[in-house]
Amino acid sequence: MASFFSPIFQKETSVLGIDIGSSAVKVVQIRKKRGRAVLETYGELALGPYAATEVGRAVSLPAAKMIEAVKDLLRESKTTTVSCGAALPLSSSLITFISIPPVPDKQVGDVVTIEARKYIPVPLNEVFLDYSIIPKEDTYVGENETAKTEPERRDVLVVAIHNEYLNEYQSIMSSSGLQPSFYEIEIFSSIRAVADQGVSTVMIIDMGARATKLYVVERGILRASHIVNKGSQDITLALSKALSVPVIDAETMKRSKGLKGGPEYKELTEIITVNLDYIFYEANAALLNYQKKYQKNVGKVILTGGGVLLKGFTDLAKVSFQTDVVYADPFGKLETPAFLAEEFATAGPEFTVAIGAALRCLSESE
Question: Does the pLDDT at position 160 exceed 80?
């Protein structure tokens, strides 16, 4: 018997965004409804236990264990599709900016390949190489001025990923039953999820377990990136050592008290502050370098990654950066249940990358 409703209620395509981090794997499932991305399900699973260590620890799992973790997450999150976009860690890639001479468009690829050899420390046949031309800014020419007729050099963003790593990642995805339509570096997923296309320049601070990534974004385009080899795990380990407590207890204290423990947790506050001050110092240095090079101010700092959820993090960040500091709100780009608004606002920074990958997958599925 034919359904009365099938001509009216067509099934929308659902897609996933997958983010495998150093300490956890996250998934977000969305679909499009009435022109808007709608959240269907999401989930996160700590990877520490799969390496027989604590929750929150950064680990390097063998492929078999990673596949097991991804399958467990998909099952527990009750995902219903295998179509996905997958984000690759920044540490798996080399990102650089180069300048090339003015050449016809059909020759750009060859010129980029030649120039990239200077920056990539392995033979180019061992990496997947991609690039993007950075658009020139519109410049005003006054009535008494003449525009330059000499062609300008072109700025190019170059990304290289080692084939061996990409093949391993593809194997994990396929063995987990997933069908990725693309792989992209997490940096671009984050930008899509939290940065607007406006003209203002922002810095995204993504604090993970193993490292903190810094991105300067202008008009939605990456202009600079930097990695600080210190993350939330370093704070836990420093607390464990200084307070002579097990790592699991240090992690619990960090999450429950943070910088808001009061006078009785003075030592806890001091240890956390010292570690964050180092990260903020590096971030400020990156900001100053960008501002000096391009003569532009960074108007906002966006905090993302699980590490920034530490209590008191934003207060310390505002003092350090002396500019507008906000939490990332990637769930704001999705239609979500109103009664869970507070939960999504809190969870947002942890799911930035997964949401960014899902958004691209949804747009490409249309």
Answer: yes
